[in-house]
Amino acid sequence: MIGQKRPKLTVKQEREAYAAATLRDYGNEFNNVGQCQRCGITGPCDRDHRQGRTAWNTTPANLQLLGGAFGCGCHAWKTGNPAEAILAGFSVPRTAEPSEWPAWRYGVGWVLYLDEPDEGGCWWKPITNEEAAALMS
């Protein structure tokens, strides 16, 4: 048996997730300027779903900023190279849970993104290369 389907997120929940991820990735919630999590360039960024968007997965753990068409172009790289993007930590396979799939964060390394900040206000948990490899196998 598959189990119960998660409820769809409300528009308010989605907006809050977008704002949290944008602030987390060094931008602000009112424009599209931030730091690309792939290359580190600060400039026009897209709020990208690490796992393809569904009615229930617009959460901070499933969002990241990647440079858009008028920036570094890393979002287009991710879209054009899906298998490589998964291994590099910028995409999540459809069968995985985004909060349990390692992400590569520019200037930090491998992390697990959180849907709520921890007690210290951090939105991610750093993990080792070995932990990332084990979670992705």
Can you tell me about this structure?
This protein is α+β, with helices and mostly antiparallel strands. It has helices spanning about 10-25, 75-80, 80-90, 130-135, and strands at about 35, 40-50, 65, 105, 110-115, 125. It has a 3-stranded antiparallel β-sheet with strand order 1-2-3. It has a 3-stranded antiparallel β-sheet with strand order 4-5-6, with no helix packed on it. Strand 1 (about 35) and strand 2 form a beta hairpin. The protein is globular.
Form type? globular
| Helix content bin | 25-40%
The major β-sheet equals: 3 strands, antiparallel
Broad structural category: alpha+beta
- Measured distance between first and last alpha carbons: 25 Å
Question: Radius of gyration, Cα only, in angstroms?
Answer: 14 Å
| Integer tally of domains | 1
Low-confidence stretches: none
Number of strands: 6
Query: How much of the sequence is in beta strands?
Result: 15-25%
Q: Please count the helical segments.
A: 4
Strand order of the largest sheet: 1-2-3
In short:
With 137 residues, the protein is of the alpha+beta class. The chain has helices spanning 11-24, 74-80, 82-88, 129-136, and strands spanning 33-35, 42-49, 63-67, 103-105, 109-113, 124-126.
Task: Please write out the topology.
Layout: H1 11-24, E1 33-35, E2 42-49, E3 63-67, H2 74-80, H3 82-88, E4 103-105, E5 109-113, E6 124-126, H4 129-136
Antiparallel strand pairs: 1-2, 2-3, 4-5, 5-6
